[in-house]
Amino acid sequence: MALHSAVSDITARIVERSRPTRNAYLAQLQADSSRKPSMDRMGCANIAHAVAGMPLDDRFKVVTERRPNIGIVTSYNDMLSAHTPLLSYPALIKDEARKHGATAQVAGGVPAMCDGVTQGTSGMELSLFSRDVIAMGTAVALSHDMFDAALLLGVCDKIVPGLLIGALQFGHLPMVFVPAGPMPSGLPNKEKARIREQAAQGLVGRDALLEGELKSYHSPGTCTFYGTANSNQMLMEAMGLHVPGTAFVQPGDMLRDELTREAARTVLGITKSKRFAPIGHVVDERAIVNAMVALLATGGSTNHLIHWVAVAQSAGIVIDWNDFSALSDVVPLLTHVYPNGSADVNQFQAAGGPGLVIRELLDAGFMHEDVLTVRAGGIREYASVPALEGAALAWHAVGDSKDEAIVRPAGRPFSATGGLKLLTGNLGRSVIKVSAVPDDRHVIEAPARVFDSQEDLLLAFNSGELERLCNETAARGVVCVVRWQGPQANGMPELHKLTPPLAVLQGKGFMVALVTDGRMSGASGKVPAAIHVSPEAAAGGPLAKVVDGDVVRVDALTGELRVLVDEAEWAARPASIMPDELRRQNGVGMGRGLFTGMRRHALTAEEGALSWM
């Protein structure tokens, strides 16, 4: 099928806009790839240090036989359920490499924090910038410069974008991403949300809430909702950076181990055959657009409107929220996976999973098919599902959807447009995820209640203040403005803990919305939230001008984010200054002081919140 004209036009605009930076990036890749092999250009002492820890047979292969050497960058720890399975991966990869006359070394590890653990705590203020730390850690690992290829082991929110940003600094090397898969299904996500809302109202106690959470998050593997971690995996498939169909195979499955071995075979296949597929060329403008399309078609995490801007920038490609919005206008929504539906990712996988989505998008002309991938068969290979036939891997056509309540063909989508909208107006530029928001909540116009922290909003809810405000206004609602939450203010934490109380108010029939320069979790959805407002309040953005009682309009239909204040009055109104107490609090304790420089230099959310530019 011919490429959809809008996708073609948007891609062409990105190519033209990116030409100077992309050309400079490709020139650097050419310079890096033109160097002599490491055994010829490195000093003898350098080489000796690099191989001293290897078994003698491996050392001989590297030094004397010049066999391929794979660098492994791992985000293993046993704090993250999603990353616990990665413990065994290096041994599998080394064993498989030896079978093919090659070697592998763990080049380095990168930190991996869990947003689920730090949600609502001061640790969350390190979360966004941990992506940049991971990128730097990846660069440090690969800077040993002894590798012919690399495997990148990671799954969750900031980890995959960070690994990819770091990997693109070594874009002359072939690389494959290796995930771990989701945990088995536990307590249904809708039931988990119900218990959280009951707890927010004081209808159940801490014991019942903890019991529900333990039933939801109960074993090794990725959390089963379609948040940022699982959106990462969908995008890796759509960009051709995985072994096809790897994303949602559970840990402990024999297929999982064989797919990990196949990752080693895949990257060695590129190296040994000298097939041209370095990661810096795989990740081109078309691959970035394919990732954006896959995100929109699945109602994925809003965090990627920050992360993929940063990923693209690392490959010399310039994208912005206008590109996401223009694609969202034409890309159909093909899945209903929690928080956009009741199904979890295991049910999504059983119904057809990423392979079905990719096939439908390719067949309908929404994805570029003429792209490089880590597989010789190209992106069409990703429209298939893997299976074990005896001891061997095989891939089969994905077939039709097994459950059209979860995933549908492009001809019968859940919605004709994607799940994300760009909002603009006198409050700045923002994004809203509408795929899970009820149709009658796409437009909210109500008086503002301004908060300087998420804790203040929770106090207002618990005291009954927010419900009283809703009852006292003609709009029967409130727009909660939470500011000083942007990258420069406090590192842009997720504000996921605000979802249950706001959902309670919405459930009582009130018209409520959140407007913030912070982020929401990839698991948030049903409450309308204008997030990532740029410029942020701490940088003098218009959120700093809003006062209690100002009427704010959040309109996902027209794409409007506006305070309804007389234009002259609004222009003359001074902006508030971030309270000194908040500034002091953001700079000390729980490691936050180490991130002061990152906050100071951070770009806007729409520019990827980059801290190194």
Largest sheet: 8 strands, mixed
CATH class of the largest domain: Alpha Beta
Rounded mean pLDDT score: 94
Helix content: 40-55%
Structural class: alpha/beta
Pathway: Carbohydrate metabolism; Entner-Doudoroff pathway
EC number: 4.2.1.12
GO cellular component, one term: cytosol
InterPro entries: 6-phosphgluc_deHydtase, Dihydro-acid_dehy_C, DiOHA_6PGluconate_deHydtase_CS, ILV_EDD_C, ILV_EDD_N, IlvD/EDD_N
Q: How would you describe this structure to a colleague?
A:
This protein has 613 residues and is of the alpha/beta class. It folds into 2 domains: 5-35 and 67-184 and 219-397, 3-Layer(aba) Sandwich (Rossmann fold), CATH 3.40.50.2300; 420-607, 3-Layer(bba) Sandwich (Glucose Oxidase, domain 1). It is built from 25 helices and 14 strands. It has helices at residues 5-33, 38-41, 44-51, 56-63, 89-99, 115-118, 127-142, 159-167, 189-200, 206-216, 228-238, 254-273, 279-282, 285-297, 304-314, 321-328, 345-351, 353-363, 454-462, 465-472, 487-490, 499-507, 567-572, 580-586, 596-601; strands spanning 69-74, 103-109, 149-153, 175-178, 384-389, 392-397, 420-425, 428-433, 443-451, 477-482, 511-516, 529-534, 551-555, 560-563. Helix 8 (159-167) packs parallel to helix 15 (304-314), helix 9 (189-200) packs antiparallel against helix 10 (206-216) and helix 9 (189-200) crosses helix 22. The longest helix has 29 residues, at 5-33. It is globular.
